[in-house]
Amino acid sequence: GVHGALTRGSRFASLYLAWLAKSYASHYGEPIASVLDAKWAGAVPRLFDGTHDGDATVAALPELPHDLLSAEFLAAYDGDRDHWFLRRLAENGLLDWRPRAPIRAYFGRDDVDVTPEQAELLERNYRSNGADATAICVGDADHDASALIAAPLVRAWFAELATAG
Fold it and tell me: Is 133 helix (H, G, I), strand (E, B) or coil?
């Protein structure tokens, strides 16, 4: 969420926040400038127009996520006040529901994009809601490496589920 992007050391934090702001503003018919600083409110939609790859988009955005966000949004976030973006993020949260299908969250100990704590929180919350959920550490890996390590494990698990019926 927003808190994680503002507090962790991911080089993708500004990209994640920009993408969320653009997507949510478009979907909910809200002004993107109420989330992003005026300098970025016009630039961000162009960065996600399909002509820029992830590295180019990351390079174009500010390194510090606070520099991306509007004063209006930061005041609401810091003051725990109502803001449409925060309200919509909370409405779409993933932790307070019970998945019907089994869930596995693979993570690397060195991941700063999806931290081990987040994977373990997901497991705890889903289990407390009665779901079959497991967080699985794939070792000392960052975000990209953990995805590569997890891919064959996920495939094997899906094959196991398919044969079990």
Answer: strand
Instruction: Tell how strand 133-137 and strand 103-107 pair up.
Output: parallel
Q: Chain-centre distance of CA 86, in angstroms? A: 14
The continuous run of DSSP H or E covering 55 comes out as helix 54-60
Provide CB contacts within 8 A for 64, sequence distance 6+. 14
Q: What residues form DSSP beta bridges with 69?
A: 36
Residues 16 and 68 sit within 8 Å (Cβ to Cβ): no
pLDDT in tens, 25-81: 999 999 999 999 999 999 999 999 989 888 888 889 998 888 999 999 999 999 989
| 18 close to 67: Cβ distance less than 8 angstroms | no
Residues 66, 74 contacting (CB under 8 angstroms)? yes
Full-prediction pTM beyond 0.90? no
